Amino acid sequence: MKPAELREIDRPWRIWASVIIVSILAFSVVFGFLVLPIVQGRAAGLDAFTAICRAVGILPGSPAVKQPTSEAKAQPTTQVAWSTDLMRTFGRRTQAGAEIAQGCVACHGEHGIAADPQNPNLAGQSAAAIYKQLHDYKSGSRVHDVMTGIAQGLEDRQIVEVATHFASSARRDLDPTTAEVVDEDVIRLVERGDPSRGLPACNSCHGFNAGGPIETPTLSHQNREYLARQLQAFKTDARRNDIYTRMRSVAVKLTDREIERLATFYATTLSY
Amino acid sequence: MRADTEQEILKTELWWTALVIAIVTAIMLAIIYAGVVHHINPPSNIETIDPKTLHLTGEFTESNLGTRVEAGDQVTSRVVATQFAFQPQCIVVPSNRTVTLRFATPDVIHGILVTGTNVNTMIIPGYVSQVHTVFTKTGDLLMPCHEFCGLGHSQMWATVRVVPEDQFRPGPDGRASCDAR
Amino acid sequence: MALTPHPDLSSQVPPRTDDAIDDAALERVMREVPSGALALSLLTVGLLLLAWFLMYAFVFLPRGMVG
């Protein structure tokens, strides 16, 4: 048998297979995009055109149910909105940043390492974290007797410069001989969290290269008193500039004892 | 049945093709029945929202999240999925009433399902995911994140509290929360 | 129209002369094989379909409207 003859045998099969596939497609389009939305839309009080547009995906919403609307006004926890343009500005350390940082020396130390443990160390902190907190002080999302006034005196560009300056400073050195005894419960909380309480591991955001929200600060090498005070502030709702209660929802589930131990852990541990 | 000639083999193949077509048709008819009679659709909603400014928009601002009874007695619950928690972590909804669940995320791809129900959707940055449903069983239903979203994924879950309709009492502003009940 | 054995296939497989099974025995086996295969495939596909319909009727539909 020649190939031409074989093709002749296949011909009706090819034609019928094509006809079947095209008719299934046509049926699906007519049924899914026209019949079903019209039938369902009538029950929901929608006109046929809206129902079809919703089924096709031109209009938002389901063809079977009324679409809710919202007139809610924004009451944002922070005014900071991360964009690639903003992230790109955290680039190089500038002289201007170093000059602005001179104003921070009294509380945050000469090299960004605070003498009073009530104040945070800034050296080696992520630029995005410092930027967000300064921006929040400026916009009133976070309130502090001293910092609010200082931040309001800074322009956006200066906030970026000073944040970049501290981010590139060397971290506080830790004396390994003073490291605390390893606290198994706290390490479990840091590394695994507590699923029964819906507590994510601290490491899932604060760990090195964890991939959580951009503004997540580094916690290791921070001052114990400062960390404990901030966790308490989140827990009692005194501080509420965390987007979508990411920290408030965590802190409210922690006991006071756990807060103390976590603060000690991060202040004295070399890694993380 | 024989398989020693080409004709016999072809006959068997055609027979089997007919059977497979019948099976696929039966399944399709069942799906069409569900669509027409029970109004069961795959939840699809093409509605975009900027994830960078989600917390600055009106609808998904922190104070507007949770359950709210809106115009026309429509019950809508808005939830934000963020690394690594839902906000709010508990939503209260009435049973035997159409409830609209609206989800958005400011960060990465999440997903939800509500145990024991047909509610199941992805939550994709840039889009509002929306599911309409009627909860028939009362009680606390688990709503875990079912799409790996990062290191804290396994601790990310929320509760859907389905209460009998007469016990669902929203406040004067139309809002209902798990604490206030 | 009547079909003849595929020419390409028969030319590709040369008849094996060293085979211990003679053609008549092969023919006998080939007559019985498909019914067993057919029974197996009907059973597996049938069970799969049954499982689908049971899930659909007793789990999916009672859970109610979604859309």
TrEMBL record, chain A:
The keyword Ribonucleoprotein does not apply. The chain crosses the membrane at residues 15-36. SUPFAM superfamilies: Cytochrome c. Keywords: Electron transport, Heme, Iron, Membrane, Metal-binding, Transmembrane, Transmembrane helix, Transport. It comes from the Bacteria. InterPro entries: Cyt_c-like_dom, Cyt_c-like_dom_sf, Cytochrome_c_Oxidase_Subunit. PROSITE patterns: CYTC. Residues 92-170, 188-270 form the Cytochrome c domain. One of its GO terms (molecular function) is heme binding. Gene3D superfamilies: Cytochrome c-like domain (1.10.760.10). PANTHER family: CBB3-TYPE CYTOCHROME C OXIDASE SUBUNIT FIXP (PTHR33751), CYTOCHROME C4 (PTHR33751:SF9). This is Cytochrome c4. It comes from Microvirga brassicacearum.
Automatic annotation (TrEMBL), chain B:
Residues 72-174 form the Cytochrome oxidase subunit II copper A binding domain. GO terms for molecular function: copper ion binding; cytochrome-c oxidase activity. GO terms for cellular component: cell envelope; membrane. SUPFAM superfamilies: Cupredoxins (SSF49503). It comes from the Bacteria. Its main location: other. It is found in: Cell envelope. The chain crosses the membrane at residues 14-36. Pfam families: COX2 (PF00116). The keyword Metal-binding applies. Keywords: Copper, Membrane, Metal-binding, Transmembrane, Transmembrane helix. PANTHER family: CYTOCHROME C OXIDASE SUBUNIT II (PTHR42838), NITROUS-OXIDE REDUCTASE (PTHR42838:SF2). This is Cytochrome C oxidase subunit II. The lineage of its organism: Bacteria, Pseudomonadati, Pseudomonadota, Alphaproteobacteria, Hyphomicrobiales.
Automatic annotation (TrEMBL), chain C:
Keywords: Membrane, Transmembrane, Transmembrane helix. The chain crosses the membrane at residues 37-61. This is Uncharacterized protein. The keyword Membrane applies. It comes from Microvirga brassicacearum.
